[in-house]
Design goal:
about 200 residues; alpha+beta; Endonuclease, Chain A; five-stranded mixed β-sheet; 5 helices
């Protein structure tokens, strides 16, 4: 029996490696037996909360057949980086846009062109998150899309909401300068800075 024992250091290393592999295999088998069969991996998730469900029903009643309502749309599907944006600012602009969702988007039924963005006000957001979302909504308006703000604390009726949607979709009439003369731009500055506490907060 002594003849079967390893003699050189290499033999001992090989024996140790084989024993280690055997122990790891046994440990893996025992671990699977101890865990048993896996249970149910997934359960159903509620797609819309109470506020979102109410808003969706209200928007569908107000839009009728003139507009189609899409919920929880990625903001990157609605906006893209401006080609004139400098390279130094592109990464920061994309980081602000990435992962953000719009509560609802109203599109034309024929070509599915985005016509209106709907944002639900959310008082549970912190001041930092509220300011961030407010800036994003301002960027949407700057890009040429009107934004409709809905408060879950004060839902409008379908008729009132329909009128508000129509007013936002109407083109803004610009008054030409009198006499065809030159019209100088006027810079209007606010007297006081707005308070962060009074700033509305929105959930996208």
């Amino acid at each position: 029996m002594i003849d079967w024992l390893p003699v050189s250091l290499l033999d001992w290393l090989m024996l140790g490696l084989v024993c280690l592999l055997v122990l790891l295999t046994l440990f893996s088998l025992l671990r699977r037996l101890w865990r048993g069969k896996p249970g149910q991996a997934y359960v159903q998730k509620v797609m819309f909360g109470p506020e979102a469900a109410t808003a969706l029903t209200l928007l569908e009643q107000a839009a009728g057949h003139t507009l189609r309502v899409f919920p929880a749309v990625q903001m990157s599907e609605v906006l893209e980086l401006s080609p004139t944006l400098k390279k130094a600012h592109r990464d920061a602009a994309w980081q602000d846009l990435f992962g953000e969702k719009l509560d609802f988007v109203l599109c034309s039924p024929k070509d599915l062109r985005v016509r209106l963005v709907v944002a639900l006000m959310d008082d549970s957001l912190s001041q930092t998150d509220g300011r961030h979302r407010h800036r994003l909504l301002e960027q949407i308006e700057t890009a040429g899309l009107p934004v409709l703000h809905l408060s879950p604390k004060d839902w409008p009726g379908p008729d009132a909401l329909r009128d508000e949607i129509r007013s936002l979709l109407q083109p803004v009439e610009t008054t030409p300068p009198l006499g065809g003369g030159r019209q100088e731009p006027v810079l209007s500055l606010p007297a006081d800075e707005p308070d962060d506490a009074d700033e509305p907060r929105f959930r996208l």
